[in-house]
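[Meeting: bench + compute handoff]

Bench side (C.D.) handed over the final construct sequence. Compute side (W.E.) agreed to return the predicted structure before the next meeting so the bench team could plan truncations. Sequence as handed over:
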Amino acid sequence: MTPESVYVFKFGREALNNRVIIRYSHTWTGRQRINEIDLRLHKQKHPRIFRTESELLDYLESRLPQREQQEADDKNASK
């Protein structure tokens, strides 16, 4: 059994502290296996946890229409 490794990806403005944390390990054949993906947005204390990449992508795709609507509303309000 090998120890778990971690990748941390920071994105967005520095004040928001958005992060994706990927915990992975290696199989006995040397392949990487993702154990857990944490998505922390806007300094969340309790991140959203996903087991696979497809779960993460499904979540992000479900949130995209809301985000686009919010940006359209903000754009119209500033005019």
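W.E. noted at the follow-up: The mean pLDDT is 87. C.D. will use this when planning the next construct.
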